[in-house]
Amino acid sequence: MAMKITNEIKDSTIIITLDGELDASSSVVLDEELSDPEIMNFSKILVNCENLHYISSAGLGVFISHLQRFENAQIKLIFFNMQDKVRNVFEILGLDLLMTIVSNYDEAMTIADE
Amino acid sequence: MAEEEKIFLPYIQLPTQKGNELSQLKLNTVFRFMLYKKNAKTFLVVTALVSWSLLLANVLLTVESVRQGGSTGGVLPYFNNFLIIVFIVSVFLYQRNRTTHLKSNDFFSYLWNLFSRAGIGAYLAIAIYIGYQLSTSSFGLQSPLLLHIVYQLNFGLLVVFLAKAFYIWRQLLLYHKNKFLQIAWDWFEILIFSTLFLTFLRLDYTSYIFLPLLALLGFYIVFLCTNLKWVAYLSFNKKSRSLVVLTALLMSCYIFMRFFYQLANSPELVIDYTDVGFLLLVLLFVGAYCLAAFLVSLFSLPTSSVFEQKSQDLLSFQRLSQSIQQGQNEAQVKEMLFDSAIKASDAEAAWIEAPKGQTLQLTHMLNISEEQIERIRHLLLAYEISDVEYLNNTLNNTPGFKELELPWKSLLIIPIHSKKHQFGVLYLLKDIEYGFDRDTVNVLNTFVNQTTLTIENLRLISESLMNERYKEELKIASTVQENLIPKTFPSDSWFEISTHSRAAKEVGGDFYDFLQLSESRIAIIIGDVSGKGISAAFHMAQMKGIFHGLMQQDMPPSEFMRQANSALSRCLERTSFITSSLYIIDYRMKGFVFARAGHCHTLYYNAMMEDTFYFQTEGLGLGIIRNKNYSSHVREMFYDYNPGDVMVIYTDGIVEARNAKNEEYGEDRLLFMLTQTYHLEAEDIKCAMINDLIEFTGPDNLYDDQTLLVIKFKADQPNT
User: Fold this and answer.
1) pLDDT-based confidence at residue B680 (cuts at 50, 70, 90)
2) Looking at the partner chain, which of A58, A85, A97 has a beta carbon nearest the beta carbon of B620?
3) Which of B11, B298, B361, B425 is most enclosed, with most CB atoms within 10 A?
């Protein structure tokens, strides 16, 4: 049930891999990760959602709260490999219109490089 | 006895006759026993007095008859011995009944009691005898009668002394007894009383037939005299006082012994109590035990302080561990630790400091100035000694401390902390080198551990009390929130509405409400605040306020969402958002308009097309983007309804509910349920859906708030 968050850095891109369920408690960890001032040094943040099985409103809240900040700093936030169930949650809330959600890593990298 | 029954029985009220009889029977037994005991005592006292008086009279008569030249007569000695035995037995039995249990561990008071009530008799006896000697020598008159009276009086005093001493020694001897010792004593008592038969039968106990037996009894006495456990429980002070009393008691024994043996076989006396072997044996026992106690007390005097210290430590420990039940607070527990630690270690100076915010605060101090503490602390910081146990028994050889020129030579530091919390640090100082040995440090550590435990427990207790209060307040919040949700919708003939709502915690973040906009129009809103609990509940109340405030102006749903977003942007915290859907139904136009702001899709059954579907509209949740761009993210949708259409509005707690296998209930299953139930009344559709949901998740498996509204449109027009 617990969440595992791993980082991978490629040049100016940071790839955050979410593994597990993003609920109220694990979203605190994610928030800390995204609040790290060093993250502002990257131009792209890719979020690998391949193993993200569930996202709670608290987890969505974390992304929402950082959305404006990344936008202002012209940092691209891209989600990829998202499961349908999770994507549905993003869509219902209307977040698919605000955030970039693509199907796979390559696509994410091409968008990011634009 | 009958009178006593009358007094006591009214207080015992038992409902049944049988019970009443039973209790009466019990009471009777108790009374009988009490009366028996009381009567026995009186009987024994009377017997003792009568037998003693008869003995005196008989002795005096004998003296008189001897003086007049008559013979003593054959039966008289047997009669005398009989009276002696009756007297001895009654006095002993009386004392046996009196001293039954040790009421406390105040052994000194027993000794003092023995001396002041009986031991003093010896001194009285010697005074009487000297008085008699003086009177005979000064007045020059020889009176055998007077001598016999004195002798007889002293005999009485001796027996009383022996009886009292015998039974008080019994209590002391049997202190912390075991079964073997109890049996040994019982046999001793039987044996020693059986020697009275020798007297009764006028057998000479000094004859060599009985000597081995008596010698055996002597060994028995020596064995019994080794049971002196009570001496260990005397404090140094009590021990020294006991030594004085024991000396006085030994003197009493000696005086009695001296007195009776001096007059033994005296030609002036017609009776000789040294012939009574029983008395000799008891005197031997009393004297031996007295001597043993005296010697043991004397030699254990130097070690008594150790025992005292240990029992003091134990007592301190007990006090520390009991402080929770006594409802003490942290400061009092620390105070207790401070006192106990100083007592246990014999420290000259000490202090306790406790963290208060960022700084350290001195809570307790003894024989030390703040300036000295500051200097020591400074030095310890330099040595990087903080929050660790530290023992320095040679301060004057340690660089740094030497320069401080402190009057102490040993320092012990024990931090008071649990795994999570720091409660303070205990400092102890002594003015001798190697002042803290390992034993003391161990005891102090035990105290500190107990204190930590106690403080932790006290905190837990206060926390649980606090939690209890929060629970109460939550209950109130829950009631307040329940009142925010409408219980009844306007009942009209053109539609039916049925609602269900359940909060996962005391207060939830789901809400719904309605507002009658005009005669033919009604606005229905449903919403879900992200997160759960108190903050969600507050935002929910806020949303209700916004709904009522804005909808008074009657605006289209998309405009409402835009304004609500703008209002919420100012007050919602960064990570929170609200999803909501607003429906305005116009029955005159037979249609409705709605906007969805990130809320779950609306489930709909169209009776004309016989189709069940979700409205797929776009719409962003409230509070997600907090600028003017929001209006481009919300869409409005118009729809004309037909009679028999069913609209299902719900929150994500319904579709995201999970079963034990961690599967979601899902939109598909909800849709399927509607295809099976659309022909029912709104209330029945709702019940069917909720029952299916509970069947899916299992009972008591509620993680998120659940809200479900079922609206069924009907053909009937309202009566106008």
Assistant:
1) very high
2) A97
3) B425
Burial class (CB in 10 A: 0-12, 13-18, 19+), B629: exposed
For CATH 3.30.450.40, list the domain ranges present in chain B: 307-462
CB contact under 8 Å between B575 and A58, yes or no, is yes
Distance (Å) from the C-alpha of residue A18 to the closest C-alpha of chain B? 19
Instruction: Specify the long-range contacts of residues B415-420, CB closer than 8 Å, at least 24 apart.
Output: B415/B387, B415/B388, B415/B389, B415/B448, B416/B334, B416/B337, B416/B352, B416/B448, B416/B451, B416/B452, B416/B455, B417/B387, B417/B452, B418/B452, B418/B453, B418/B455, B418/B456
Q: Give me the residue label for tokens 């202090």.
A: B351
Instruction: Tell me if A2 is assigned to some domain.
Output: no
Q: Which fold has domain B485-713?
A: Phosphatase 2c; domain 1 (3.60.40)
pLDDT, one tens digit per residue, over B65-90 is: 877 765 555 456 778 888 888 999 99
**β-bridge partners, B534:** none
Q: What's the token pair of residue B164?
A: 């009292």
Edge-to-edge strands, sheet with B359-366: B359-366, B349-356, B422-430, B410-417, B390-392
B626 touches chain A (CB under 8 A): yes
Instruction: Please tell me the distance in Å from B626's CA to the nearest CA on chain A.
Output: 9
Q: Which residues of B294-317 are buried (b: 16+ CB within 10 A; e: fewer)?
A: bebbbebbeebeebbbeeebeebb
CB B597 within 8 A of CB B550: no
- Give pLDDT tens digits for B614-632: 999 889 999 888 877 888 8
* Fold (CATH) for B307-462: Beta-Lactamase (3.30.450)
Residue A14 lies in a domain: no
Contacts of B15 (CB under 8 A, 6+ apart): none
Among A55, A92, A96, A97, pick the best mutation site for testing chain B contact (most B Cβ within 10 A): A92
> For B11, which DSSP code?
G
CA distance B234 to B175: 13
pLDDT at B9: 42
Percentage of residues of chain B with pLDDT beyond 70: 92
CA distance B623 to chain A (A): 9
Query: Considering only CA atoms, which of B253, B275, B265, B149 is closest in space to residue B206?
Result: B275
CA atoms of B55 and B298, how far apart (whole Å): 42
Q: What is the pLDDT of residue B21?
A: 63
- Parent domain of A96: 19-113
Predicted pLDDT at B638:
94
Question: Testing the interface with B: which of A57, A62, A71 to mutate, by most B Cβ within 10 A?
Answer: A57
What is the tens place of the pLDDT at every residue in B532-574? 677 888 888 889 999 999 999 989 999 999 999 999 988 888 8
Q: Are B664 and A85 in contact (CB < 8 Å)? A: yes
Residue of B281, B172, B162 whose CA lies nearest to B225: B172
Number of domains composing chain A: 1
- The phi, psi pair for B580, rounded to 5°, reads -155, 155
Secondary structure of residue A82 in the 3-state scheme:
coil
CB contact under 8 A, A60 and B530: yes
* Of residues B717, B683, B710, the one with CA closest to residue B590: B717
Cα–Cα distance for residue pair B95/B282, rounded to 1 Å: 14
pLDDT band at B5 (very low <50, low <70, confident <90, very high): very low
Residue B705 to chain A, least CA–CA distance (Å): 12
Cβ contact B269:B263 at 8 Å: yes
Tell me if A86 is assigned to some domain: yes
Task: Decide: helix, strand or coil at residue B588.
Answer: coil
pLDDT tops 90 at residue B687? yes
ipTM field: 0.88
pLDDT of residue B8: 44
The enclosing domain of A58 has a CATH number of: 3.30.750.24
* Per-residue pLDDT tens over the stretch B122-174: 899 889 888 888 888 887 767 778 888 888 889 999 999 999 999 999 888 88
